[in-house]
Each structure stands twice: as C-alpha cells, then as structure tokens.
Design brief:
Shape: elongated
Largest sheet: 5 strands, mixed
Strand content: 5-15%
Number of strands: 8
Oligomer: single chain
Structural class: alpha/beta
Radius of gyration: 44 Å
Distance between the termini: 174 Å
Order of helices and strands: HEEHHEEHEHHHHHHHEEEH
C-alpha cells in the first residue's frame, strides 16, 4: 500500500533535514516593534523633560521672588533721585581717578558686579546700590556711543521693602568696603532721619538703626559727626576732609559753646579744606586754653639726647657727656676752658641766674 496520500506527500520523517518554517519577526514586524520602542522611550523622555521644566520654572519663580535673578535694564529706565546717595561731593567722585579706573575695567572686562534697583510707583526703577557702576556705564555710553554700554546688569528688589531697609542696604555695601568717611555716614543718618518714609526724625537715633552692625565706638564717632554737621551746616564746606579725631574734638567743644556763630562765619570764608581744618583746630585749642587752669610746668627728671656721636644726659645738678674721645688725654687747661665756656653759655641762657 502506498504510503502517500491523495495529496501526494507522505508522512513527515522526524529525522528529516528538510528546512522548517522560520517563525522569526519579519522586516515589517521589526519596524513596528522598533517604532513602538522609540515611541515609548520618547514618551518617557518627554515626561522627564516636563518634570524638569516644572522644577526649573518653580526654582526660577522662587529666585525671582527672592531677588536673585539678574536682568539687563536700559540706563534711561533707572532713576537716582528717590533715595539720596550716601556719598558727599558726588560730582567730584564722578570725575575722580577712581572713576576712570572703574571705567577702564568695565571697558576691558565688562560689568562684573550687578547694581540693585527697586520699582517705583511709576513703573520705572530707582537705584539702591551701585551708583559708581551706573555712573561709569553712563559716561562710557556717552563717550563711546557703544550700545554695549547702554544697558546695565541689575538685580531687582523682591517684593515690598520698607524705606529704612533700603537705606540700610545702600550703606552696608560701602561700609563693608570701608570706603565711607564718618562725615558721609553721618550725612546718611541726617538725610534718612529727615525722610518721612523712615518714621524716624532723630538723626542720633537713626545712627543706631542704620549702623547696627558697626562697633559701638564707631557709632559714637558717627554721632559726633552728626552733631558737627547739624550744628555747622553748609558753612562746613568740606566735611569729608575732617579727620576722625578732629571731628570728635570739635563735637565735644561745640557742646555749650557760645562761639558757634563766629566759628560758622570763619568757616564760610575758607578757600580750601586745609584752611577749614586749621580753623576747626584753633577753635578746639582756644576752648581748651580757656577752660584749663594754668599749671606750673612740671620739672623733667632727666633729659637725654645725642649730638653727633656724643651722648648727653642731664639731671638735677648733673650733666654727663659720653663720647669716643679720651678726655684723660686732654690737658687740664683745655678742659677748664671748655667747662668755662659751657658755664657761660648756661648762664647767658638763664639770664645770669645760678
């Protein structure tokens, strides 16, 4: 009986090496699978990117609300008239050698430190910190016409701030650099006290609010200059030139003095800082002489000095001369002449008194 059936093929031989049907993924299936895998990976990447974007946006909003975001602002949008500066003689600072050095640095390396501003009621910006940097950029823009100097990098104050806090922020920058004179710091206290927005009308008390971080001794010096500036007013034309010790002495002398009108008149006629300080020094000296009783001059226990290689020591009843000379080799007659000449000079200087 034939092993073949009506279809013409026999039973499969288990040991046969005939090729079997390939059950692997075909080209179309592979393409579909790759597309699905790519879609899945792309979806995960997009989800991760959205998560990162949300985190970045949240961090940016927090930084902006905290005033840590830097922006570029046109120079003409920033005013400097709302918050008085903490420096005297700003015109002199604007044309100083230090300003030229700052301009040279910005011209070569750009603005490295941002200024700080706050929004005013009109939607513009007012300067809080960085008057020198802003002035340097404005001068460079006028001098060069370069558009790179037409904007300034700034940090915008976050939220509503008390006016006294703005004064404190303004002065702290310069106090940390220690480039403010005591007269300048005193002027800030006087200006801030007169500002209705600070709620403090006493300049002496304002010193404690503005300069809390300073040592109490420095605050005492500032208060002395507050007294000097308030008493002498505009007649003190060069307050920055008044050194600390002189200012403290003048403040002490002004208390209870009846010569203040005369002092102000003398100061108003000064032509330079040296003349001003000389008048202030004389005012202190005259006051001390008038309040200090005359005292007999105290006798000195000993006087020593060198005359060339010779050392002289003088005491009551004794004058000792030490030198490299061998006095034993000098004749007695010569020594006597020297001693007599010495005595004559002493008697002549004392009016013949022995």
């Amino acid at each position: 009986m034939s092993s073949r059936n009506k279809f013409g093929f026999g039973p499969l031989d288990p040991g046969s090496t005939a090729s079997r049907r390939d059950r692997g993924v075909g080209p179309m299936g592979a393409a579909v699978r790759e597309a699905a895998e790519d879609l899945h990976a792309s979806t995960e990447a997009k989800v991760e990117q959205r998560r990162r974007n949300a985190e970045d946006a949240k961090a940016f909003r927090a930084a902006r609300e905290a005033g840590r975001v830097l922006v570029s602002l046109p120079l003409d949008r920033i005013g400097t008239d709302d918050l008085p500066r903490d420096r005297l003689e700003l015109e002199a600072v604007a044309v100083s050698d230090e300003m030229e050095e700052l301009k040279a640095s910005i011209r070569a390396r750009g603005q490295k430190e941002p200024i700080e501003v706050y929004e005013d009621e009109l939607g513009g910006y007012q300067l809080k910190k960085g008057w020198r940097r802003l002035t340097a950029l404005r001068q460079l823009h006028v001098e060069t016409g370069d558009r790179s100097f037409s904007e300034v990098v700034a940090r915008i104050e976050a939220g509503e701030s008390q006016r006294i806090a703005r004064y404190i922020d303004m002065v702290e920058e310069n106090v940390v650099r220690e480039d403010l004179t005591f007269a300048e710091m005193a002027q800030v206290a006087i200006t801030a006290a007169a500002d209705p927005g600070t709620g403090e009308g006493d300049a002496d008390a304002m010193v404690g609010r503005l300069y809390t971080a300073l040592h109490k001794t420095k605050r005492s010096y500032i208060r002395s200059f507050v007294s000097v500036l308030e008493t002498l007013g505009d007649d003190l034309r060069w307050p920055k030139a008044v050194k600390r010790d002189l200012g403290v002495e003048v403040a002490r002398t002004l208390k209870g003095s009846s010569d203040i009108p005369a002092l102000r008149t003398a100061l108003s006629g000064c032509s330079d800082p040296e003349a001003q300080n000389r008048i202030l020094g004389e005012f202190v000296s005259v006051s001390k002489r008038s309040t200090t009783p005359d005292r007999p001059a105290a006798s000195r226990p000993k006087l020593e000095f060198h005359l060339g290689a010779t050392k002289v020591t003088a005491r009551q009843g004794e004058c000792r001369i030490v030198s490299q000379d061998n006095f034993a080799e000098i004749s007695r007659e010569r020594l006597e002449r020297a001693v007599k000449a010495f005595e004559r000079e002493l008697r002549a200087g004392s009016g013949g008194k022995s």
